[in-house]
TrEMBL record:
PANTHER family: UDP-GLUCOSE 4-EPIMERASE (PTHR43725:SF47)
EC number of this enzyme: 5.1.3.2
Gene3D superfamilies for this protein: NAD(P)-binding Rossmann-like Domain, UDP-galactose 4-epimerase, domain 1
Name of the protein: UDP-glucose 4-epimerase
Source species: Sphingobacterium kitahiroshimense
Catalytic activity: UDP-alpha-D-glucose = UDP-alpha-D-galactose
Family that this chain belongs to: Belongs to the NAD(P)-dependent epimerase/dehydratase family.
Pathway where it operates: Carbohydrate metabolism; galactose metabolism
Keywords annotated in UniProt: Carbohydrate metabolism, Isomerase, NAD
Gene behind this protein: galE
InterPro entries: NAD(P)-bd_dom, NAD(P)-bd_dom_sf, UDP_G4E
Cofactor(s) required for function per UniProt: NAD(+)
Source lineage: Bacteria, Pseudomonadati, Bacteroidota, Sphingobacteriia, Sphingobacteriales
Molecular-function annotations in GO: UDP-glucose 4-epimerase activity
Domain NAD(P)-binding stretches: 5-327
Length: 342
């Protein structure tokens, strides 16, 4: 079966995708510089799939190392590209880091594979829609001016990929625009492992519930929504991982829509931050200590996706609901308490 390069494969979404690729009969090969993940995730993956995946540690921004990898691994048939800096707030404070990491890594990969037939799946984001003109937002919606350097890297990367696919015959590319990944593998052996202060909601929730943090601060409850809290399309990370496998399969058989395509990857349902908190309390049996703080600049009021295209053309649909998301995240947090990974 095909060998698939997974960049950032020891990270949160990457590690789950490595598992799902293996389950689907592929051979995943990981490249990661471990700047935002732990080498111990390889052992965790091995506990799930029975073998330790092939791993290479280097920075994709180093074009010499990328070319060396391509030369030494001629049997790679596809790439799933996760490796990127991804914290919105940090990108505002340090935009050059984001433009350097996210563009150089992508361009070096594309340059290195320019002479080789390759199926390429890109980790994009619903941030490209900004505050959508309509909901649920579909793939035909206009791409809005980004509210952060991180979001801007996703928009520009999509443009780079589309123009590359059009210019070179060997590339077939899909960009997956996903919403808010949460949860953990059902084994509780892999999950979100934030280094330092979490950047996402759910690790804050679970860390507060288990006592690592005194309280959870929710940013704003005066938004124009049903309960005043921001609304998001939360998707279980295992469903998201399976979407990447579906994208590789579509590229392998030939996407009838052409050499470049985009797909929303979400559930199609919008949950407010308060609803997410209540769902976690129900799933875990833990009462959460949270307070409401001021809004954060640039926060979108509400966004959730129309996933009709993914259902019909990608042959993929989310299967796991908000309870499974919260329950699995809590089991992972409890696992980490007993089995620290640093």
């Amino acid at each position: 079966m095909s060998k698939i390069l997974v960049t950032g494969g020891t990270g949160y979404i990457g590690s789950h995708t490595v598992v799902e690729l293996h389950n689907a009969g592929y051979t995943p090969v990981i490249v990661d510089n471990l700047s935002n993940s732990s080498i111990k995730m390889l052992d965790q993956i091995e506990k799930i799939i029975g073998i330790k995946p092939e791993f290479h540690q280097f920075d994709l921004c180093d074009d010499t190392k990328v070319l060396e990898f391509v030369k030494n691994n001629p049997d790679i048939n596809g790439i799933i590209h996760f490796a990127a800096s991804k914290a919105v707030g940090e990108s505002v404070q340090n935009p050059l880091k984001y433009y350097h990491n996210n563009f150089f890594s992508l361009i070096n990969l594309l340059e290195a594979y320019r002479e080789k037939p390759i199926n390429f799946v890109f980790s994009s984001s619903c941030t490209v829609y900004g505050e959508p003109d309509y909901l649920p937002v579909d793939e035909a919606a206009p791409v809005k001016k980004a509210t952060s350097p991180y979001g801007n890297t996703k928009q520009i990367a999509e443009e780079i990929l589309e123009e590359t696919a059009n210019a070179y015959d060997n590339f077939n590319i899909i960009a997956l625009r996903y919403f808010n990944p949460v949860g953990a593998h059902e084994s509780a052996l892999i999950g979100e492992l934030p280094l330092g202060v979490p950047q996402n909601l759910l690790p804050f929730i679970t860390q507060t519930a288990i006592g690592k943090r005194d309280k959870l601060t929710v940013f704003g409850n005066d938004f124009d929504t049903k309960d005043g809290f921001c609304v998001r399309d939360f998707i279980h990370v295992v469903d998201l991982a399976k979407a990447h496998v579906a994208a590789i399969k579509l590229l392998e058989k030939g996407n009838p829509k052409g050499k470049y395509d985009v797909f929303n990857v979400g559930t199609g349902n919008g949950y407010s931050v308060l609803e997410a908190i209540k769902a976690f309390e129900e799933a875990s049996g833990q009462k959460l200590n949270y307070v409401v703080g001021p809004r954060r600049e640039g926060d979108i009021v509400k966004v959730y996706g129309d996933v009709t295209k993914s259902t019909n053309e990608l042959n993929w649909k989310a299967q796991l609901g908000i309870f499974e998301m919260m329950d699995s995240a809590w089991k992972w947090e409890k696992y980490l308490q007993e089995n620290p990974i640093d």
